[in-house]
Structures are given as structure tokens and as C-alpha cells.
Amino acid sequence: MSLEARLQAASADFQKLQAELADAVEARQRLDAQLSENELVRKEFAVLTPKNVVYKMIGPVLVKQEQAEATANVAKRLEFIRSEIKRMEAHLQSVSEKSEKKKQEVRPRVPASRVARPTADRCARS
């Protein structure tokens, strides 16, 4: 396989990784929004009195729900969202590392002799 073909393949892989990274960031942002919403619900539940009625929307219908059950559901949802955020963070880290490795493969290699020569020329002029 020629150098050009390898660079093209590495570049295509890098672009795929960048797209995967963008998707993962978007998913992480959605999870953050869900976490914020559910935290607000949890805070609202904390100020309820036993006399307050809680309703759950099922399709277009509001159905009465026990406060304890609703509070437990929100707590479970928060736990799930937090675990998904941790999983997504690990995935983001993994994809970011893979992307960085591919970036190094795609980046053109400059031979050390080409880099060293201008420095030597500058020293000779001084």
C-alpha cells in the first residue's frame, strides 16, 4: 500500500472518529439536560406536603400517582442518568484518544534533518 493510500485511509478513519466524537458529545449534552430536568423535579418533590397530589402523564392522559412512587421513580431515573453520564465520559475519552492517535498518523511527517537545518543556518549567520 502506498503512502498516499495509507494517508487517505487514515484520514477517512480520522473523519469517522471525529463524527463519532461529535455524536458522543451531543449524547452527553442530552444527558446533562435530562439530569438538570430531573434534579428540578426532585427539588420540587422535596417541598411537597402529604396533601399534594402528583400526576403522571401517560400519553395524553394525567393519571394520579402516589408521591412515594413518583419520588422513587425520579431517584431511579437520576441514578440511571448519572451512570449513563459516567459511561459516556469513558466513551468520549476512548474516542478522543483514538482520534488523537489517528491525527498523528495523518499529520505529515517532517524529517528531523529538515527541521534541524534551518536552526543550523541561523546559528551560522549569528
What does this structure look like?
- This protein has 126 residues and is mainly alpha-helical.
- The chain has a domain of 73 residues.
- It has three helices and two strands.
- Strand 1 and strand 2 form a beta hairpin.
- Helix 1 packs antiparallel against helix 2.
- The radius of gyration is 27 Å and the shape is rod-shaped.
- The two termini are 45 Å apart.
- The model has no long low-confidence stretch (mean pLDDT 87).
- It comes from Heterobasidion irregulare (strain TC 32-1).
What is shown here, in short?
This protein is 78% helix and 8% strand. With 126 residues, the protein is mainly alpha-helical.
Q: Which spans have pLDDT < 50 for at least 5 consecutive residues?
A: none
Query: How many strands appear in the DSSP assignment?
Result: 2
Number of helical elements: 3
Structural class: mainly alpha
Q: Please compute the radius of gyration using only Cα atoms.
A: 27 Å
Largest sheet: 2 strands, antiparallel
Beta-strand residue fraction: 5-15%
Region (Disordered): 91-126
Keywords: Chaperone, Coiled coil
Biased composition (Basic and acidic residues): 97-108
Biased composition (Low complexity): 109-118
Outline the fold blueprint.
Layout: H1 3-46, E1 54-58, E2 61-65, H2 67-106, H3 112-125
Antiparallel strand pairs: 1-2
What descriptors fit this protein?
126 residues; mainly alpha; two-stranded antiparallel ribbon; 3 helices; 2 strands; 8% strand; rod-shaped
